[in-house]
Task: structure prediction
Amino acid sequence: MKCSTFASFSNILIIKFTIVMLVLKNKQEVTDFIQSLKYKGLTIGFVPTMGALHSGHLSLIKKSIEDNQYTICSIFVNPTQFNNLMDLEKYPRTEDSDIEKLNAVGCDAVYLPKIEDIYPKGTEIDPIDLKGLNSVMEGASRPGHFEGVATVVKRLFLQTQPTNAYFGEKDFQQLQVIKQMVKDLNLSINIIGIPIKREENGLAMSSRNIRLSQDYINKSTILYKSLIQAKELVKYHNPKEIIKIIKKIFNNSDLKLEYFNIADEESLLTPEEFLQGTHYRAFIAAYAGDVRLIDNLRIL
Ligand code: AMP
Result:
């Protein structure tokens, strides 16, 4: 879909005289546009992001383009999911190059909401029952984080009304939280998880990697290496033993470990023993200087 009849001329990105991607700049524009897509009965794929786009984000967009008649990406740095003001301020913002990248992969529209389009009454949080998935790991380290995520994603869902929405396994806990939110609110949206894209050295791609020095890029490979090691240790050790072994590795590292955990993929709880027929993941968060990195891997 590259048709421009839905929006005014100023919303259309023009590169070398070819009409390509629609740029929706506020709630009214997105609402009108979605109505016209719904009227035509088109399937809508939605990819919410905070920008500073890399190949990991683009893999979600590509899958959405494959699955849907129309793909919309949103770029919005959501203040309510940051519990650290410095982190919010330092979050990279690269809107022009993001738009170019989205256009290059064939995304149909980008939605760039302003703060008042998402939070018209101030940055309040919506009550959503996340069934405790919000209180472990990232939720424990960043109080209020998932409440902010669930609120912004709910509001973006209501505005974009997608058939399918795409989330990266890079933020596996977030993926589970969103699935729970959709259940709690009884929304008819399919939530689709996409595998983690990594650099050649194993480092999970992240918008925050822009802020790493070359030295820290090299040292940060310890995250993925420790996940791989955890996967090997599954043969001979129970979850608690593995956690202890991996934590020790970080004593001699330049990265500061925040948590290393092993959890059931569904409940996100740490088991005493591994059970046959259940999937488990190892989860890690660590600081490389002042840059916070997370990663995870299915280990069983
Ligand atoms: P963010 O802009 O960080 O909020 O990410 C937007 C979406 O892209 C989320 O669903 C992330 O999980 C996903 N994502 C970010 N990095 C990666 C990656 N390396 N591989 C796959 N998906 C990713």
